[in-house]
């Protein structure tokens, strides 16, 4: 008896996806509701689960193919199956031993993680995974390499040869062609659309982080004990942004046709790192949240981004975006608007710099802020006023308590 595996409903207005990876191979035992394939949509990765327990049947659709909602991509056959053919492969001639080890990684690693593993010649079984069901994420591999805890594979050199898409010539110069993920294609399209449509301009300021850093140092332990989440900087900036949006409503508005839509709520999009790139989930009604609620929501987004469990609803909407390039070491940038939003705030790294205070040169932890905005809707005066309001709230966090 055979049960069809179909592409599930992907969310409002999304009718197709790309089959990113098969997680189960034909002949392998499959449990009901176990992930068997990964789909890449315009916004997030979605797992396809087995409708019944049994044995993985034929793959009707190959990796990289575009599929529509409801399309049949494979089947589950009746039976108990087996853990693929790994044991048999390991018992073959010595030349087959190394590929068998690679197969084990191929069945559970995403393309980006597999590429990192191969680049560094690592043994994925020696790295602890923090993703869903213990699966390795890109961050796990990067962290292992940085910490020096990653273990290199012990195998014959020829075993690595099949990895290259194009064989390297004698000079050692090689090229690899990797198909763009649907997420990356969508990001490219939307960012170019923003450049072509909006009259984008960026204004800069810097902010003294002394007060926020002192408050964080003083209260972080009590905060984590009471709320069960770490006190970061994003909570302060999100509150400061929400307060400034109330004062300068044009920054929270958008253009729809020949109308301007003003909003009395703030749904803040925050950029978080995922294995396949940055994703931008939305903090709903952030203006009504406490710092603890904001930090808890962002922490949850970060965890779910790593294990691939963010949903379409998590990504929908958003009236303003905060992008923190500082976590990657960025000193200054000109962030691009996320349409149909009209502005985005870029945060950057904190570094000690000499500044003048009361006529004296002192060293302070400073951060550059960048506000990119649509000049069709937001005037320069409004943009600068907004950015100064954020700066003032961060340099004097008491303002956040008394809404000043």
Choose one word for the global shape.
globular
Major sheet summary line: 7 strands, mixed
**Gap between N and C termini, in Å?**
68 Å
Strand content: 15-25%
CATH architecture of the largest domain: 2-Layer Sandwich
Q: Cα-atom Rg, whole angstroms?
A: 25 Å
- The SSE order reads EEEEEEEEHHHHHEHHEEEEEEHHEEEEHH
List the total number of helices: 11
Tell me the CATH superfamily of the largest domain: Chloramphenicol acetyltransferase-like domain
The stretches of 5 or more residues where confidence is low (pLDDT under 50) are 84-107, 155-164
Please bin the fraction of helical residues.
25-40%
Please report the total strand number as a whole number: 19
What structural category arises from helix and sheet content?
A: alpha+beta
Give the C-level CATH assignment of the largest domain: Alpha Beta
Average pLDDT confidence is 82
The third-level CATH topology of the largest domain is Chloramphenicol Acetyltransferase
Q: How many domains?
A: 3
How do you describe this structure in short?
This protein has helices at residues 86-90, 97-106, 111-120, 138-147, 182-197, 210-227, 234-247, 291-307, 312-315, 380-395, 398-402, and strands at residues 2-6, 16-22, 29-30, 35-40, 45-49, 54-59, 66-68, 72-77, 200-208, 254-256, 259-261, 268-270, 272-274, 277-279, 282-283, 320-324, 343-347, 351-357, 360-374. It is α+β, with helices and mostly antiparallel strands. Helix 3 runs parallel beside helix 4, helix 7 packs across helix 8 (291-307) and helix 7 (234-247) crosses helix 10.
């Amino acid at each position: 008896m055979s049960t069809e595996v179909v592409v599930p409903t992907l969310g409002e207005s999304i009718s197709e996806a790309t089959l990113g990876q098969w997680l189960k191979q034909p002949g392998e035992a499959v449990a009901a509701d176990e992930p068997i394939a990964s789909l890449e949509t315009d916004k997030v990765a979605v797992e396809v689960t087995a409708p019944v327990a049994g044995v993985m049947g034929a793959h009707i659709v190959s990796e990289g193919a575009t599929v529509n909602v409801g399309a049949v991509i494979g089947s589950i056959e009746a039976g108990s199956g087996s853990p693929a053919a790994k044991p048999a492969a390991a018992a073959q001639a010595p030349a087959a031993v190394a590929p068998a080890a690679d197969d084990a990684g191929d069945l559970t690693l995403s393309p980006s993680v597999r590429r990192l593993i191969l680049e560094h010649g690592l043994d994925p079984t020696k790295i602890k995974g923090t993703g869903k069901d213990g699966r390795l994420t890109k961050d796990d591999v990067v962290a292992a390499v940085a910490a020096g805890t990653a273990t290199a594979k012990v195998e014959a050199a020829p075993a690595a040869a099949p990895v290259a898409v194009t064989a390297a010539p004698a000079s050692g110069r090689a090229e690899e062609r990797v198909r763009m993920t649907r997420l990356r294609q969508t990001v490219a399209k939307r960012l170019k659309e923003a450049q072509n449509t909006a009259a984008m301009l960026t204004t800069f300021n810097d902010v003294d982080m002394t007060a926020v850093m002192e408050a964080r140092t003083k209260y972080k332990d009590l905060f984590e004990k009471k709320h069960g989440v770490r006190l970061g900087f994003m909570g302060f900036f999100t509150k400061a942004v929400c307060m400034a949006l109330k004062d300068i409503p044009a920054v929270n508005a958008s253009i729809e046709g020949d109308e301007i839509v003003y909003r009395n709520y703030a749904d803040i999009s925050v950029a978080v790192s995922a294995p396949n790139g940055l994703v931008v989930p939305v903090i709903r009604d952030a203006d009504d949240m406490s710092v603890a609620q904001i930090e808890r929501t962002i922490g949850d987004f970060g965890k779910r981004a790593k294990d691939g469990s963010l949903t379409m609803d998590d990504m929908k909407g958003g009236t303003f975006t905060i992008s923190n390039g500082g976590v990657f070491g960025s000193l200054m940038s000109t962030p691009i608007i996320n349409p149909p939003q009209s502005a985005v705030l870029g945060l950057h790294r904190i570094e000690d710099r000499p500044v003048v205070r009361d006529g004296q040169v002192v060293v302070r932890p400073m951060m550059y802020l960048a506000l990119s905005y649509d000049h069709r809707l937001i005037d320069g005066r409004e943009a600068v006023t907004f950015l100064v309001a954020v700066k003032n709230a961060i340099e004097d966090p008491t303002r956040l308590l008394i809404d000043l």
